Amino acid sequence: MNIYECSVCGAPQEAKTCDRCRSRIRGALAQLPEQYVYLCMSRQRVQGGDEDGRSSKKLHAPLPGRGDVLNMLGPASRQAVTGAEDQVGSVPFLEVLWSWCEAVTEERGLTPVRRDVTSMTGRLTKHLDWICEQSWVADFAEEIRDLVRTSQRITMTEPRRELLGGVTCPSCEGLTLVRYFPGDWAAECRLCPSVRLDERDYQALVKEQARNLEGVNP
Ligand SMILES: [Zn+2]
Ligand SMILES: [Zn+2]
């Protein structure tokens, strides 16, 4: 069996993309339809007036995130985006998915998919194993991850992060271990993509480092 470096995280692997990165990409794709719904709801909130419909005629200071939301939603909201706000931020949500879908469709000789978030994430997920073999998988992973992060920031559904103090990363030895929640319990290093410990391994690491410390200061 050939040994590669994972194209995404660099860990030594038997495949071009390691299982952990593959399942992270799969997880990110799975979140996108829901994030898109949240984004559309955010747009209604910033564009709509009060229930009596009159307040939309008043002058408002722009709400935070408004430009972000409109940028992310892209062409669907074109008439509401002024020149100054146009595309200063993220590439529109559907545009990112569409360009990757086109790459898959063309290179694999498939029939084009419908330009909606469910169809597009469905196609990308279905061909994920093939995508993970391509030279551009790292770019793909990064753009999908950015899409999730930017959407989560706008829709305020970002996972929260807890610093796991007092224990150093087994790889870079920094005080960089964090845990994201909600989600499965895992200690991850902010700097080393290959470090991800489940609760048992993390507790073992805590004990091991405490023992080493006792050895230094008897
Ligand atoms: Zn990897
Ligand atoms: Zn580290």
Main pleated-sheet profile: 4 strands, antiparallel
Mean pLDDT: 81
Q: Helical element count?
A: 7
- Give me the side-by-side strand order of the main sheet: 3-4-5-6
The first-to-last residue Cα distance is 47 Å
Overall tally of structural domains: 2
The percent range for strand residues is: 5-15%
List cofactors, ions and other ligands: zinc ion
**Helix and strand run:** EEHHHHHHEEEEH
As residue ranges, the low-confidence spans are 49-58, 76-89
Cα Rg? 22 Å
Describe the oligomeric state of these chains in a short phrase: single chain
Write down how many β-strands occur, each being a DSSP E stretch of 2 or more residues: 6
Shape: flat
Helix percent reads: 40-55%
Can you give keywords for this protein?
single chain, 218 residues, alpha+beta, 2 domains, four-stranded antiparallel sheet, two-stranded antiparallel sheet, 7 helices, 8% strand, flat, binds zinc ion
Your description of this structure?
- By secondary structure, this protein is an alpha+beta fold.
- It folds into two domains: 1-78 and 89-158, no CATH class; 159-218, no CATH class.
- It is 48% helix and 8% strand.
- The protein has seven helices and six strands.
- The chain has helices at 19-47, 66-73, 93-108, 117-126, 128-131, 137-155, 199-216, and strands at residues 4-5, 12-13, 160-163, 177-181, 187-189, 196-197.
- The strands form two sheets. The chain has a four-stranded antiparallel beta sheet with strand order 3-4-5-6. A two-stranded antiparallel sheet has the order 1-2.
- Strand 5 and strand 6 (196-197) form a beta hairpin.
- The longest helix is centred in the N-terminal third of the chain and has 29 residues, at 19-47.
- The chain binds zinc ion (ZN) (2 copies).
- The site of one zinc ion has 8 residues, from helix 1.
